[in-house]
Amino acid sequence: MSCSKQTIFITATDTDAGKTWVTASVIRALLKKGISAKALKPIACGLNEAGLNDDIEILLAAQGFNDADKINLFRYAMPAAPSQAAAAENAIVDTDKLTTWCKKEADHVDTCLIEGVGGLMVPITDNWLVSDWIEATPDAEVWLVVGCKLGAINQTLLTLEQLKQMGRSPTRIFFNAPQKVYNDWITPTRKAVEPFLNANCQVYSLNYDSEVSLN
Q1: Tens of pLDDT along 174-205?
Q2: Which residue among 2, 38, 194, 201 sits deepest, i.e. has the most Cβ atoms within 10 Å of its Cβ?
């Protein structure tokens, strides 16, 4: 992995594909190498009884942080798309503030990981999708996490086609088992999808709870 300054946007084929696990694993690997890096979860939806979000807590622990505001800008109680979760609190995600904050945070480190929410077509507002967020982060590499289970091939090919149309085909793709029972889905999903990947896309297979080994 290059040591030059870079921003990476981590998206997925669907919710619960394993974005947070992959992001946490990558940030652990980067920090272990002594790289100046930070992982952000700018938008999080779904809080437990203690008012905490599981994804934020995982990323905080991976970086040795204890303040959610270090990595998160908007968080809402309802486990739903951000447009719906914000509306439930009579709020709207300020997309200009979101993109400005992400850029500012990225400027402080050599490598910044931005974890999105769900897949490309998840609405952040009523007229702004995760795909628009990626478009508003033009210098970021896109990494794609595939949750290997029934339906994953279709979801992955749809996502790849959308990214291709955006001119943002992924530079890395992670075929991930979101639960142990899905470990056996990794190989067939990967074999079906690989013919549709760009030749320079780096491919990873991750059994449940496997750590990412970056090269």
Answers
A1: 999 999 999 999 999 999 999 999 999 999 99
A2: 38
> Which residue segment(s) compose the domain that 16 sits in?
6-42+95-206
Is residue 213 in a domain? no
Cα separations in angstroms, 183 against 78, 95, 147, 186, 189:
30, 37, 10, 6, 11
Provide the pLDDT for residue 42: 98
Nearest to 105 by CA among 63, 149, 166: 63
Strand-by-strand arrangement of the 111-115 sheet: 37-40, 111-115, 6-12, 141-147, 172-176, 202-206
Helices (H) and strands (E) in the chain, counts: 7, 10
Rounded to whole angstroms, what are the CA distances from 187 to 10, 26, 38, 84, 208?
22, 21, 31, 35, 13
Asked whether residue 89 is assigned to any structural domain, the reply reads no
Which CATH number characterizes residue 193's domain?
3.40.50.300
Question: 5, 32, 33, 41: which is the annotated catalytic residue?
Answer: 41
Known catalytic membership, residue 41: yes
Give me the residue label for tokens 């439930």: 88
